[in-house]
Amino acid sequence: MKNPIATLLSSSPGPVDALMDITSRPPVVFVEGHGSWLRDQNGKDYLDFIQGWAVNCLGHCPDAITTAMTAQVQRLINCSPSFYNEPMIRLAGLIARHSGLDRTFFANSGAEANEGAIKLARKWGSKHRGGAYKIITFDQGFHGRTLATMAASGKPQWEHLFPPKVEGFVKVPFGDLSQVERAISADTVAVMLEPIQGEAGVFCADNDFLRDLRALTRREGLLLILDEIQTGIGRTGKFFAFEHAAIAPDIMTLGKGLGGGIPLAALVARECVCCFEHGDQGGTFNGNAFATAIGCAVMEEIARPGFLADVAQKGRYLAGGLEALSRRHRCGAVRGKGLLLALDLAREIGPQVVALAFAQGLLVNSPRQDSLRFMPALTVTRDEVDQMLEILGQVLGEVPR
Ligand SMILES: Cc1ncc(COP(=O)(O)O)c(C=O)c1O
Q1: Is 256 a catalytic site residue?
Q2: What is the pTM (predicted TM-score) of this model?
Q3: Using alpha carbons only, what angle is made at residue 206 by residues 254 and 169, rounded to the nearest 5 degrees?
Q4: Of the candidates 118, 121, 170, which has an alpha carbon nearest to the alpha carbon of residue 149?
Q5: Which of 23, 118, 142 to mutate to test the pocket of ligand 1 (most atoms within 8 A of CB)?
Q6: Is 12's pLDDT higher than 70?
Q7: From ligand 1's centre to the CA of 13, what distance in Å?
Q8: Distance between CA 370 and CA 329 in Å, rounded?
Q9: Residue 133, pLDDT above cutoff 80
Q10: Ligand 1, residues 158, 194, 230: which to mutate, most atoms within 8 A of Cβ?
């Protein structure tokens, strides 16, 4: 008998089902995942170097998460954000201990956490900076898909989408301190950035730039907001990317890896910035016991002795392998930190490489036409890195010059 999912996929001329058509998807349905591997409806296996866009930090369906999930789901799922639950308190404590920041508000997506950061900064500006509300953000930055976070982002394609735009964001070139200085006015309340611009193609802010920006924001009495939604929770080989520059933000947002695959995000701040009054911020699912129990399991895994050192080592191993491929196939530089890396292809062949790799059972992402991005599980093995490099080498050999 023909596989019913295959029938569904092949019989429909347009979108395969009742889903809104918001992106182009390959004609397969994933039904199972373990560690670095995904399986489709026909039993074909794929080596996953996307991992839900850097979300499944411990890989697909890891024991740490399934165990925590099963235990929590039998105890308490959601008692409403109006009440304390035990995992919510424990996870806020873990985030405080590892980040050095003081308080957390839990959210369900990165965009929602960033929306909260923008609100918190505006509230702080209204109380402590004479009503200042403008936030300096960066060209090519990505902060989410709500109206405010789209306005905060610096994606050129979004410039004229969904007017009118949420006002109050001033864009400057990434890494340019003098332009930040020039953009500051009496209305400015904060500077907001990703330590590594992931969606833009994995471009790292210099440690010196981050340190100078921290000093500048202190001097000017502005808040420094770091969007660590992609870079946090061990992705770069440190718990948080800001540790590479030995700075601390006033506000940080987390998402993606924090839930290891389930929707969980966080707005984290220093005590002196936490000025929300009752009613200013909330949300039905925020801080539910189910999600935060999983967040605790993820944080405890990442905090295990040697885990982060291993991520850093595997990042160097992957970067070394990509550099060797680059020399062989005349590509460009390898960018990034830890297990958030990009390979400059030196030609606009990204989508072609992604499609050919997919056909060979490898999932990689092309954030721009001329680059590939790699965000494997932090638990990826060296053998899996070698397998990925082998397939990618074959694919790069097939693409016409
Ligand atoms: C740096 C950064 N901020 C915010 C977001 C938005 O997160 P979410 O898709 O969970 O809303 C993303 C997602 O890719 C991101 O990479």
Answers
A1: yes
A2: 0.96
A3: 55
A4: 118
A5: 142
A6: no
A7: 32
A8: 14
A9: yes
A10: 230
